[in-house]
Amino acid sequence: MSQGHDHKAHDHKACVGDALTRAHSLCEARGARLTTLRERVLELVWSSHKPRGAYAILEEMAVDGKRVAPLTVYRALDFLVEQGLVHRIESLNAYVGCPEPGQSHAGQFLVCERCGDATELNDPAVTDAITNGAAARGFHAVRQTVEVLGLCPACQAAV
Q1: CA distance 31 to 33
Q2: Which of 56, 78, 123, 132 reaches 20 to 30 Å from 145, CA-CA?
Q3: Beta strands in the chain (DSSP E)
Q4: β-strands 107-112, 145-150: how paired?
Q5: SS3 at position 23
Q6: Residue 3 has what pLDDT?
Q7: How many other CB atoms are found less than 10 A from the CB of residue 58?
Q8: 1 falls in which pLDDT band (50, 70, 90)?
Q9: 111 contacts: CB under 8 Å, gap ≥ 6
Q10: In the predicted structure, residue 9 carries a pLDDT above the cut 70
Q11: Is the distance from CB of 154 to CB of 113 less than 8 angstroms?
Q12: pLDDT band at 6 (very low <50, low <70, confident <90, very high)
């Protein structure tokens, strides 16, 4: 998931390594079990800053020589979402790594329709507006995912 950094200068291995380190720390602190399979799925989600679908992850695992059932990958993704380590982008039916998994927050994403990059917005004002608007209508919001489709700066420049 893009964080607005220069992709050419970005050290992606460090990014993936940081995500795995955070995941191990969080799971250990929560008493949650980050199995080898769950860790590999998390690594594959983070292998690109573009949202990854379950079947793309499954195909990559097959390339690794591991035959895994689709249900197993979906269960691993459900665990990772439950732990706040990844977000599911509903409109794309795909997953992105969460750069701030230790903090409770709503999923707000800017999704580029051209290149598929997704940037997490995480703006408390957006969360509050939705929560307050829902409450004014007697609705208790339990989970929020906001997806804004458009063009990222790089794709705008290319137009």
Answers
A1: 7
A2: 56
A3: 86-89, 94-97, 107-112, 118-120, 145-150
A4: parallel
A5: helix
A6: 42
A7: 19
A8: very low
A9: 51, 89, 91, 92, 117, 118, 147, 148, 149, 150
A10: no
A11: no
A12: very low
Q: Any idea what the Cα angle at residue 117 is, between residues 116 and 121, rounded to 5°?
A: 130
Query: Which amino acid is present at 34?
Result: L
Residue at 94: amino acid letter: A
When pLDDT is averaged across residues 30-56 and rounded to a whole number, the result is: 93
Short-list 47, 45, 29, CA closest to 80: 45
Residues 13, 19: Cα–Cα separation, whole Å = 10
Q: Phi and psi dihedrals of 81, rounded to 5?
A: -65, -45
Q: What is the pTM of this model?
A: 0.82
d(CA 59, CA 52): 11
The residues, ordered by sequence, that sit 6+ positions from 88 with a Cβ below 8 Å of its Cβ are 77, 81, 94, 95, 107, 145
Three-state DSSP state, 16: helix
Kindly report the backbone phi and psi dihedral angles of residue 108, in degrees, each rounded to the nearest multiple of 5, phi listed first: -125, 125
Strand partners, 149: 111
> Residue 152 and residue 2: Cα distance in Å, rounded?
10
Residues in the chain: 159
Residue 147 burial class via C-beta count within 10 angstroms: exposed 0-12, middle 13-18, buried 19 and up: middle
